[in-house]
Amino acid sequence: MESYAALSQELTQLLHLEQPPIAISFSDAPPAGVALYDGQAPAGCRFWQDAATSTFTTSARDHELCAIGVHTHNLQPSPAQQKDLMDALKVFADLGYVRPEDVPQIPVLKNQPQHVTYSRLAEAPLPPDLVILFVRPDQTLILTEATQQLENENAPAMGRPACAVVAQVMNTGRPAMSLGCCGARAYLDNFADTTAIFAIPGSKLESYVERIRVLTNANTVLSQFHQMRRRDVAAGNRPSIQESLTAFAASQSRAGQLGT
User: What pTM was estimated for this model as a whole?
Assistant: First the structure.
């Protein structure tokens, strides 16, 4: 298997990522040599941003201000967190944001971890259980194509809460996309209006990088083909696909000769 640093670099280059891939790992004990989280996070999703600049391990206590995150990650809640969750769900219900019948549909991690470790993928101290990418819509094109080929189905696009994408990927073993939620967009500085989250199971990371490599090249070539065909049609021509392919091959040959 390629190193996590190499996989991270290739993902970043192929997809033109503006932010580093983030690794998330679950464990029963804190990993040796990894610092415990030192700070106060307003929400569990904030760890995704903090992991871009540091590597750390969290426990349920570090998530205590995020009752929703404790719920989706199936962390051991304190009585105060349980009350916060009930209070939050009541407000959500009053607003029509999360109705009581919606709650069972929110993914919750099947297992109950004791610790969650966050880091850049390139510096992952443990094999990642999943990898989070901050992506634009054009970058999700290749990611969804890879998912369709490897899973024989499309990746679901999820809404609130953003942290539920972690449970969705862990429970199904398949990628998922999160469009975020108003909370995540408030708590994360790097979650812009044009940004979404795409999460890949760590166990399939190398297979996805391989597919992304092929699909990135294919998309580049096909984009050039379609642009040339568009110009040809705009000029008043009615080329068949074969005629366009012949013209495109000739243009690629000339470009190759000019580049040598």
Answer: 0.88
